[in-house]
């Protein structure tokens, strides 16, 4: 598939005869990145699929009013992140779970995930990440796995670059600690 | 930096994505999203469905009652209405004739025009009264004097 720049995609959406076609191109271009971003937050594939669809439907509804103050991809990531956090909050409310139990539930989902193809150490790292507070977890995943720039993360998470660096640093320390404590596993 | 012990370094863990998705999952994401968007549009219409379900029997009952009322009124009131129509027509003709008759009478009499005129008397007006009238009518003294000269 031909890769288009954000500007080209937006121009096609705004000026082209078929807005649906332009939106399909946007979906095709970003669906995988958004899915993996969401999947690392909600863990289960079915939940990630739901959240991804919600994200893209919201993007469709909001694209008409999208002004190019931010990049298209940071805007999409912001919707995806908010939708994922909202999803977890709804889960907490629905089952009246405290925060810790949701993380436990995510950890159990990881254990029972038939589509997890990683080795033991990879699972251990994922569990260590799930032990982090929600925002730290998102920051760690974006920086470590997605290798995103702090400036883009700042735009997506609406947090200063300094705060993000500090958050990533704390996350790394906690993961190190987790690995030390669970050395025998 | 991330060396923890001799056994495991978390930073050595492969960055490869350990999660998987069902086969061909990404091939139809855009189709399913398009379907969601389409159902969202349909949802705007279907959201009225419960209201319509409640309104429908009420509307049907209203139509039946109105129909019955109209039928009964139409059957019992046909003769009366035609009579009333002819009566009102003849009353209108009579009124018009009376009006024209009154108009002709009024034109013949002086009273008709008298309503539109002011009363004129033959009494004489004194000079003082005239002066008083002119001064109260905001006429300048100079004009009054010149009028007096003209009159002479």
- Total helical segments of chain A: 9
Summed up, the helix count of chain B is 6
N-to-C SSE series of chain A? HHHHHHHHH
Q: Output mean pLDDT of chain B.
A: 69
What's the CATH C level of the largest domain in chain A?
Mainly Alpha
Cα Rg of chain A: 18 Å
Secondary structure class of chain B reads: mainly alpha
CATH-derived architecture of the largest domain in chain A: Orthogonal Bundle
The chain pair forming the largest interface, with residue counts per chain, is: A-B, 38 and 28 residues
> Largest sheet of chain A at a glance?
none
- Structural class given helices, strands, pairing of chain A? mainly alpha
Oligomer: heterodimer
Mind telling me the CATH superfamily name of the largest domain in chain A?
RNA polymerase sigma factor, region 2, helix turn helix motif
Largest sheet of chain B: none
Strand proportion of chain B: under 5%
**DSSP strand content of chain A:** under 5%
In helices, the fraction of residues of chain A equals: over 70%
Computed Rg of chain B: 50 Å
> How helical, in percent, are the residues of chain B?
55-70%
H-E string of chain B: HHHHHH
What would you say this structure looks like, in words?
Chain A starts with 5 loop residues before the first helix and ends with a helix. Chain A contains nine helices and no strands. Helix content of chain A is 77%, strand content 0%. The relative contact order of chain A is 0.10. The radius of gyration of chain A is 18 Å and the shape is globular. Chain A has two domains: 1-96, RNA polymerase sigma factor, region 2, helix turn helix motif (Rna Polymerase Sigma Factor, Chain: A, Orthogonal Bundle); 118-185, Winged helix-like DNA-binding domain superfamily/Winged helix DNA-binding domain (Arc Repressor Mutant, subunit A, Orthogonal Bundle), CATH 1.10.10. Chain A is mainly alpha-helical and 185 residues long. The longest helix of chain B is centred in the middle third of the chain and has 31 residues, at 78-108. The relative contact order of chain B is 0.02. With 152 residues, chain B is mainly alpha-helical. Among the domains of chain B are: 60-108; 127-152. Chain B is built from six helices and no strands. The chains are: A mainly alpha (185), B mainly alpha (152).
């Amino acid at each position: 598939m031909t890769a288009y720049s954000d500007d080209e995609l937006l121009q096609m959406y705004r000026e082209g005869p078929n807005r649906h076609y332009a939106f399909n191109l946007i979906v095709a271009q970003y669906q995988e990145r958004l899915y993996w971003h969401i999947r690392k937050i909600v863990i289960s594939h079915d939940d990630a699929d739901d959240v991804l669809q919600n994200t893209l439907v919201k993007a469709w509804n909001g694209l008409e009013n999208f002004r190019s103050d931010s990049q298209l991809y940071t805007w999409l990531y912001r919707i995806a992140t908010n939708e994922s956090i909202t999803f977890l909050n709804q889960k907490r409310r629905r089952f009246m779970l405290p925060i810790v139990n949701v993380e436990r539930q995510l950890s159990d989902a990881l254990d029972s995930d038939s589509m997890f193809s990683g080795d033991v150490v990879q699972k251990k790292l994922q569990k260590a990440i799930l032990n982090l507070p929600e925002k730290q977890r998102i920051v760690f995943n974006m920086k470590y796995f997605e290798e995103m720039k702090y400036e883009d993360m700042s735009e997506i998470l609406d947090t200063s670059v300094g705060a993000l660096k500090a958050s990533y640093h704390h996350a790394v320390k906690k993961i190190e600690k987790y690995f030390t404590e669970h050395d025998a596993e | 930096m991330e060396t923890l012990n001799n056994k495991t370094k978390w930073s050595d863990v492969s960055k490869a994505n350990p999660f998987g998705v069902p086969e061909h999952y990404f091939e139809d994401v855009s189709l399913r999203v398009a379907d969601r968007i389409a159902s969202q549009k349909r949802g705007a219409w279907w959201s009225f469905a419960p209201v319509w379900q409640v309104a429908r029997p009420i509307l049907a009952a209203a139509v039946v009652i109105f129909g019955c009322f109209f039928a009964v009124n139409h059957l019992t009131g046909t003769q009366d209405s035609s009579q009333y129509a002819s009566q009102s027509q003849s009353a209108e003709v009579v009124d018009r004739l009376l009006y024209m008759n009154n108009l002709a009478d009024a034109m013949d009499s002086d009273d008709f025009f008298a309503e539109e005129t002011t009363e004129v008397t033959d009494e004489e007006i004194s000079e003082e009264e005239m002066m008083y009238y002119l001064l109260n009518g905001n006429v300048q003294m100079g004009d009054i004097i010149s009028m007096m000269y003209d009159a002479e």
